[in-house]
Design brief:
With about 700 residues, the protein is α+β, with helices and mostly antiparallel strands. The chain is about 40% helix and about 15% strand.
Length: about 700
């Protein structure tokens, strides 16, 4: 009997030893497995934390003007420091109270969830940690399979091994879904409350923290009653976890919230034509593809001035009749750096996104003449240079072609006029004669130096602006003259940051001196003649219809063809230009239509300068100002006392005095097509405009 007992004891010991050995092997295998998983996870490195993020566009004052979304989803990224403490505490409290204590898996919570599920005989309680949810949001579909669970676990380990708790929490809060196509707390704060995540109150934060559990059930915009119930649960959990007091929770619960349901803080889609140009520059200048622009969460800081943009839109809307089919292109620019401050590519972006400020090529008419007269000044012209204005037929191309330019309504001085008069009165004969005086290609070369990039045809009529150009080119060229001949390419983007706030592009100005500074100033001063007052019976200028609306110093030039009307000009601080016309090149026959460009320009410039003290153009050191008789370009005397301050490059100013005879010559009556008329030349010209 004793022998049998001993044998049984020995057998039991052997079994126990075998079981211990097997257990040891199993534990070893589990440990090796765990170490293997950890080692594998470590060798896989840090998984990327970013998801598709909306690119944001900002104006020069930092206001948000638009965004580029991926598949219609709104996603922003902000740092944990830019989130209110309340949203962080509320989220941790309701989603994963032990987040800062576990290593990706809350085993106690998992056990509790299993017991709860067994008791209920169904899935009633979740046990996913914030890290697990983040792994799922980043890398996985939400199907319920073992393969997905295992992959989720692996990603969870990788996240915990390679990132701090703060980085994981930041990523989670920037990627969770808050309903209505909105991802991340910054986008949610924008959408629900019209504010930033850093500005959320406890009441607002606790409401938002409840949405991710079921956006279709707990969004306050869908079911405010259920949202309030969920908010109460969250506030109580914050009390239990020591984040807030019971009294504070009750106050937050009682607070009445206002929901905006807007997708952005501030106005959305300001200046859509401008934004289109910015997006194009991201592709051409920064070499970014469309997917990068849509998904990388870029922050694009632009040159747009919201106030000037609003003024331009307002003037266009109130100046052109609603039923009119007239279109426009408008650009305002800072002459000192080339920054585009406002832009209109048409009257209604929704109806037509075609950008008439940057894409359309239209004949600029007489607005091209300042380029011509600058080139003439370089060749020895002065404001007093006289040329006879009369009906003239020109031969060119080795006499194989003829061209007869005509003044408006066929009015001619039939006498000599000065350059200062020619530009103020927009005399076409003077312009063509001057163009033919220049060397071949000289006008084109000057235009190119100023920033004109469109193809120009070197024919006599080029002096009258017969080659198509864009509004942005013309405004940029005028900006160069205003800037003393220093050329800046048009600037739309000043800086681009990635979603982390790291600068990936910054505009570096590369100005280039392309004109003689003194002659550029002389050209500017010549262009102020457009707004001269009517000094006598013979003086009237192309700006006479709007001069009474202007209260400060401007240099400008208008231009017109049968199908186009332009007005471009500047103060020392601002350049603006506008084209108006029909898209189908239909002639403008209604008198009011021909005044749209001038009226919009004048209204814009006056309102844009309301807070700026009137400042005259500052003469350069190499010019001298001389009072001359405007009809003769000579020094005034008692016989011809009318005078105007005119600037010349030093050494080219007139030294001769006006005599009785020269003044009498200017009083001869002009002729229409060589027929005698009773009205004086300049008085008749006044009727043109």
């Amino acid at each position: 009997m004793e022998l049998i007992t001993n044998n049984r004891l020995k057998t039991a010991i052997k079994i126990m030893r075998a079981l211990l050995f097997i257990g040891l092997i199993c534990c070893t295998l589990v440990a090796v497995g765990i170490l293997g998983v950890l080692a594998y996870a470590k060798t896989q490195g840090a998984p990327p934390l970013a998801v598709p993020l909306s690119t944001l566009f900002y104006a020069e004052d930092g206001t948000l003007i638009g965004e580029e979304r991926h598949q219609g989803e709104t996603r922003y990224w902000v740092s944990l420091d830019d989130m209110s403490e309340s949203i962080v505490d509320a989220t941790v409290s309701i989603e994963d109270r032990n987040f800062f204590d576990h290593h990706g898996f809350d085993y106690k919570r998992i056990g509790g969830a299993i017991i709860a599920d067994i008791k209920a005989m169904s899935k009633v309680q979740g046990a996913s940690t914030i890290t697990q949810q983040y792994a799922r949001n980043l890398f996985l579909e939400h199907e319920k399979t073992w393969n997905r669970k295992l992959t989720e676990a692996l990603y969870t380990i990788r996240l915990e091994l390679n990132y701090s708790k703060q980085e994981i929490l930041e990523g989670y809060l920037n990627t969770i879904y808050y309903g209505h196509g909105v991802y991340g707390i910054e986008a949610a704060a924008n959408y629900y409350y019209g504010k930033r995540a850093s500005e959320l109150s406890l009441a607002e934060a606790s409401m938002l923290a409840g949405v991710p559990k079921g956006p279709t059930h707990y969004s306050p915009l869908v079911n405010e009653e259920k949202a309030k119930q969920r908010q109460k649960v969250i506030l109580l959990s914050m009390v239990e976890n020591g984040f807030i007091s019971k009294k504070t929770a009750e106050q937050a619960q009682a607070e009445e919230l206002t929901f905006t349901g807007n997708k952005m803080v501030g106005r959305e889609d300001i200046a859509p034509y401008f934004q289109d140009v910015v997006k194009k520059e991201l592709q051409t200048k920064l070499k970014l593809d469309q997917q990068t622009i849509e998904t990388e969460g870029l922050r694009v800081y632009t040159t747009l001035n919201p106030k000037l943009q609003e003024i331009a839109e307002d003037k266009a809307k109130n100046s052109i009749k609603e039923e009119s089919k007239i279109q426009l292109g408008f650009v305002a620019m800072d002459p000192k750096n080339g920054e585009v401050l406002a832009l209109l590519g048409g009257r209604d972006y929704e109806e037509s996104p075609f950008n008439r400020a940057t894409q359309a090529k239209r004949q600029p008419g007489s607005t091209f003449k300042p380029f011509l007269y600058y080139a003439a000044l370089e060749k020895g012209y002065t404001p007093s240079t006289q040329i006879r204005s009369e009906l003239t037929t020109f031969s060119y191309d080795d006499n194989r072609s003829k061209y007869t330019p005509r003044n408006y309504k066929n009015y001619y001085a039939n006498d000599s006029i000065t350059l200062a008069q020619a530009i103020a009165l927009s005399d076409n004969v003077y312009a063509v004669k001057t163009h033919l005086f220049l060397d071949d290609g000289e006008l084109i070369d000057t235009a190119k130096k100023l920033g004109i990039t469109s193809k120009l045809k070197d024919v006599p009529s080029l002096a009258l602006g017969t080659s198509g150009v864009s509004v942005i080119e013309m405004v940029n060229a005028y900006s160069t003259i205003n800037n003393g001949g220093t050329h800046h390419k048009p600037v739309f983007i000043t800086r681009v940051e990635n979603y982390k706030g790291e600068v990936i592009y910054e505009n570096t100005p590369k100005p280039k001196q392309v004109l003689d500074e003194d002659l550029a100033f002389v050209t500017t001063q010549l262009m102020t003649g457009m707004f001269d007052e009517k000094l006598n019976d013979y003086t009237a200028v192309t700006g006479s219809t709007i001069s009474d609306k202007l209260t400060r110093f401007y240099a400008a030039k208008s231009g017109s063809t049968d199908t186009d009307n332009w007005m471009i000009g500047y103060s020392p601080q601002l350049v603006a230009g506008i084209w108006t016309g029909y898209d189908n090149n239909e002639p403008m026959t209604i008198v009011a239509e021909k005044q749209y460009a001038k009226n919009i320009w004048a209204g814009f410039m006056e309102e844009a300068h309301q807070d700026i003290a009137p400042t005259p153009f500052k003469p350069t050191e190499g010019v001298v100002g001389v009072y001359v008789n405007p009809d003769t370009g000579l020094l005034p005397t008692k016989d011809c006392p009318v005078s105007r301050l005119t600037y010349y490059k030093a050494g080219t100013e007139p030294t001769e005095y006006c005599s009785k005879n020269t003044e009498d010559i200017k009083k001869e009556n002009p002729k229409k097509d060589n027929e005698k008329e009773d009205k004086g030349f300049f008085k008749r010209i006044f009727d043109w405009f």
